[in-house]
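Exercise 7.
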Amino acid sequence: MGAVDEVVFLLEEAFSGEGIQETNEAQSFLTNLRSVDSSFWRALPAGGQRTIESITLHVGGCKVMYDDYAFGSGSLKWDDGEVRPWPRGFAPMDETMAWLETVHRRLVDHVMELDDAELSKPRMANWGSEKPTRWLLSMLMQHDTYHAGEVNHVRSLLERDDFWRWG
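Solution. The predicted structure, written as tokens, is:
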């Protein structure tokens, strides 16, 4: 297996990996998102500022921006419709999840077109700096996992079930 294949595997795991099926434990973004009851989509936990809807729009928007700058024209802005297809508070859950899967697939398809040597190639980041391709892709993997934890925590707070299972 080549380096690009490994990167694609890790991108897919961070986004939609199933984790430990026997105990229903996963750190991937989409797997955690699928555990969210639709009644929690726009709900705020006490003292919270972010809804699961807003977190999901952020994750998808970042995928679009990173993809556009690293592999596309580098012309999109944060308020463009392709980056923010719905305003916060108006994104339908099912449609948003389908959009998220579409933008993730587009990014992965671009990565699959690379050869291993291109992982070291500098590419533009959406903030205007060039970074090695593997670094940009690593950030996206970490971003998915970070926000998977955030979704999981918000859901746990809303369910009033915020405890460590094994603690």
